[in-house]
Amino acid sequence: MDHFPTNWGRPRNDAYDAYNTYPLHQRPSNAPTHDKFADAVQRTQQPIVTGTSVLAIMYKDGIMMAADNLASYGSLARFKSIQRLHAVGSNTVLGASGDMSDFQHIQSLLDALVTEEFTHQDANTLGPAEIHEYLARVMYARRSKMNPLWNALLVGGFKDGKRFLAYVDLLGVTYTAPSLATGYGAHIAIPLLRQAVDGRQDTLTEEEARKLLHDCMRVLFYRDARSLDKYQVATVTDAGVDISDTIKIDTTWDFAEGIRGYGAQTQ
Amino acid sequence: MSIMQYNGGSVIAMVGKDCVAIASDLRLGSQAMGISSHFEKIFPMTDRVYVGLPGLATDVTTLHHQFRYRLNMYTIKEEREIEPETFAHLVSSTLYEKRFGPYFIEPVIAGLQKTASGDFKPYIAATDLIGCLNFAKDFVVAGTASDKLFGVAEGLWEPDLEPEDLFETIAQTLLNAVDRDAYSGWGAVVYVLTKDKVIKRELKGRMD
Amino acid sequence: MPDGSFSHPQQRQFNPYSDNGGTILAIAGADFTVIAGDTRQSEGYSIQTRYAPKVFRLTDRAVLAVNGFAADGNMFVKKVKQRLEWYRHAHAKDMPLRAIARLIQTMLYAQRFFPYYVYNILGGIEEDGSGAVYSFDPVGSYEREACRAAGAAQSLVQPFLDNQIYFKNQAAAPNQSHPAHLPLPDVLSIVIDSFTSATERHIEVGDGLEIYVVLAKGRSAQGLEGARGIQELSTKSDGDRVFVIRRELKKD
Predict the structure, then answer these.
(1) Are strands B198-203 and B133-135 parallel, antiparallel or unpaired?
(2) What backbone phi and psi angles, to 5 degrees, belong to C151?
(3) Judged by CB atoms within 8 Å, which residues 45-64 of C form the interface with A?
(4) How many Å apart are CA C37 and CA C54, to the nearest integer?
(5) Contact A146/C16, CB-based, under 8 Å?
(6) What are the alphabetically sorted keywords of the record (chain C) (predicted)?
C-alpha cells in the first residue's frame, strides 16, 4: 500500500525513490515528463465554419428571429441547409452567428441544462432570461480563460406574458433592445429594424414583423457576400416556440441587365 | 507621440455680440519638459484679423512669416486690407499647398468682417493641418487641450455675450481646460476684438 | 508581414477586451451625493443599445457607476452585490460606504494581472452623514473626492467640473469664500449641463441619462420635488434614501 496520497493514481515505479525521500509537495511524477500532445491542445483562435447575421425583433405577441441557412468555410458556401435557430425549452429560441462548431457545443450544453432542470420534476422551467444569463456566464468564463466560444448569440423568448430579447457575444458583452442584429445585420439591418420597431413593439403585428424581417433578409442577401437566399424565422409567443420551414427570398436582378460588372459579361 | 503634441499649446476663439475673442496659453515645451512661458502663438494679421497657430513651434514661426508675406502681397495688389473670411481661405490654400508634407499647425482665425452696411460681423474659423476649413457660429478650438476646451466651452458659452462677458467666458474656458492638460498652460493671453478697439490681457495661470 | 506566404508563422491573439463608450460622473454635497451616467452602449461606430444602465444601487446609501468594458463592468457589479449580500447575512446590516470602497479596491487589485477594464465611481452617504465620492482606476487605486468624471468624455467634463464645483480659476468676492458644497438643485443643473455638453461633442455619449441621488438620513427631499420623472428606490423611508431621475439625451 502506498500511503502517500500524492502518489495515488500514478503509475508505480518501485525502482525510483522507493522510500519517498521527497517532501510531499515535491513528489516526483512517475508519468512521462512530457505529454507528446501537450503542444497540440487547440483553442479557438479564429472561427472556421461560420454563420452570418441573425436578426431579432419584439412585436405585439412576442419575439421574432431570423437567420439564413448558410454555414460558410471562409468564402466557400460550404453547408447550405444549416439551421442556426435553436429552441431551448418551450419559451426560448437561440440564434447563432459565428463559429458553427462552437454553436453546436452550446446547443449540447443547453440541452443538457434543460434536461437537468426537467429531472428535478418541480414544474419549474428555464425561461429566456435564465438561458441568457447562463450563456452570458459561459461566454464570459470562456473569454476569461482566453479560450472563447466564437459566437455572437441572440436569445429571444416569451414567458409569463413578458417578452425577452438579448445579445451575448464571445467577449461576454450583453445588452437588450427592442431590435437586435449580429454581424453585418448590425450595420445593414439595424437602421431598418429600429425605424420600424423601436417604440412600436406593442402594436407591431405578426404579419408586419414577418414582412420586415423578410425585407431585411433580402437586403442582407443583396449586400452580404456570406449570406444565402434561404432562411428560417422563429417566433416565440404564448403559444410557444415555432421555427418555420426554410423560406426562399424573392430577388430581382433585371436591373443589372445593362450594367457592366454585374453578372455575366456579354462582351 | 505625435509631432502635433511635441511642443504643446492650445488656442480657442469665441463669438460674442458684435465682438470676437481669441485666446491661447503661453507654454512652449519639449515633450513633457517646459521650455518657455512666454511663447505667444496668436498674431495680429490686420487690426481686425487675428490668427492663432498651435502646433509644432518651428512651424508657428514659419507660418507666421508666410502669412505676413502673403498678406503684404495681397494688400499691395488689392490696395485694401484683407477681410477675415478671405484670410481664412488664404490660410486654407497655404496649408493645402503642402498637402503631402504639411505644416504641423492647426490655425484658428478670429476677426470682424465688414458688411455691406459698414458694420462689423464677428467671424471665426479653424482648419486642420492641411487646410480643411471649419466655420462655427459659437466657438472653435485647437491644440493639445482641444477636447477639454470643447467640453468647457460647450458648458460655459452662450449667444450674444458683451465684450467683458465674452472675455470672462473665454478666459475661464481656456484656464480650466489647460489646467487639465499637461502640454498646455504656463499662463495665457486673451484678445477681445470690438469694432473700435482690441483688448489684450495676459492672464496668470497655474505654473505646474 | 501578411503576404500570404508561410515563411513567417503568423500569430493572431484573441483580444479579451473591448471599449463600450459612455461616461459617468459623481458629485458629493454636504448631506447628499449625485451619481450619474448616460445609457448608451456602443462598440466602435455602432450603437449596440440606447438603454444599458451603468449606474447601480448597491444599498440604501451606496450607488456604484461602472464604465469601460461592459462585460467586465456587469460581472464586477454582480460580484460586488454578492459580497454585500454576504456581508448582510453575516452582520445583519448594510456595509458602510468606506468599507465598500475598500472592498472594491481589494476586488480590483485581486485581478491585477488580468484586470477588470473598468473605471468605477462609488457615491453615497458616509456613516457620519456626509456625502462622499470614491473614484477608482481599473486596478484599484482609489481616493475620496468631492467630484469626479470618468469614461469616454472624462476629458470634456472634468475641467468643467473643476470650474463649477471646485471654483477653480475663480476668485471669490471680496471678504467672501467659495462654498465647500453646493446645494442639490445647483448640482443637478451642473450634472445635466455636463451630459448635454458631452452628448453634443462626443459620439459615444447620449441616448439617455440616469441621475441617482442619495440623501442622508433625516434630510428632507428638498431640491428634488421639482424633478421630472423621479423614482424612489430606497427600501425604508427613515434611513438614507436613494432616488433616480431619468432624462432623455440626444440620440444622434
Answers:
(1) unpaired
(2) 105, -160
(3) 46, 48-52
(4) 6
(5) yes
(6) Cytoplasm, Nucleus, Proteasome
C162 → closest Cβ in B147, B180, B205:
B180
> CA C41 to CA C23: how far, in whole Å?
10
Over range A7-36, report the average pLDDT. Answer: 59
DSSP state, residue C168: T
Q: Of A168, A164, A133, nearest to A150 (Cα)?
A: A168
ipTM of this predicted complex? 0.96
Q: Residues A40-63: pLDDT tens digits?
A: 655 657 899 999 999 999 999 999
- Tell me whether residues C159 and B151 touch, CB distance under 8 A: yes
pLDDT digits (tens, 9 = 90+) for B33-60: 999 999 999 999 999 999 999 999 999 9
Residue C5 clears pLDDT 90, i.e. is over it: no
Which residues of chain C have a CB within 8 Å of the CB of B148?
Answer: 155-156, 158-159
Question: Would strands A76-79 and A240-243 be described as parallel, antiparallel, or unpaired?
Answer: unpaired
Query: Does the CB of A48 have a partner CB in chain C at under 8 Å?
Result: no
DSSP string, B95-144: HHHTTTS--SB--EEEEEEEPTTS-EEEEEEEE-TT--EEE-SSEEEEET
pLDDT for residue A22 is more than 60: no
Asked if residue B43 lies in contact with residue B51, where contact means CB atoms within 8 angstroms, the answer is yes
Chain C contact for B179 (CB, 8 A cutoff): yes
Q: Is any Cβ of chain C less than 8 angstroms from the Cβ of A28?
A: no
Burial readout A184-211 (b: 16 or more C-beta within 10 A, e: otherwise): bbbebbbebbbebbeeebeebeeebbbe
Handedness of CA C34, C100, C198, B191 (dihedral sign): positive
3-state secondary structure C178-204: CCCCCCHHHHHHHHHHHHHHHHHHCCC
The radius of gyration computed from the CA coordinates of chain B, to the nearest angstrom, equals 16
**Calpha distance C64→C121 (Å, rounded):** 6
Residue B9: what residue type? G
> How many angstroms separate the CA atoms of A25 and A217, rounded?
61
No. of helices (H) and no. of strands (E), chain B: 4, 12
Cβ contact C168–B180 (<8 Å): no
CA atoms within 13 A on the CB side of A213: 30
Q: How far is A52 from chain C (nearest CA, A)?
A: 17
pLDDT confidence of residue A259: 80
List CB contacts (< 8 A) between C18 and chain A: 171, 173
What's the confidence (pLDDT) of residue A26?
56
Residue B117 distance to chain C (closest CA, Å): 35
Check if B174 contacts C (Cβ < 8 Å).
Answer: no
By Cβ distance, the residue of A46, A146, A187 closest to C46 is A187
Torsion angle of C-alpha atoms A94, A95, A97, A100, degrees rounded to 10: 60
Contact A148 C48 (CB under 8 A): no
- B15-26 mean pLDDT: 98
What residues of A act catalytically? 44
Q: Which phi-psi region, left, alpha or beta, contains residue B79 (left: φ > 0; alpha: ψ -120 to 50)? A: left
The pTM is what? 0.91
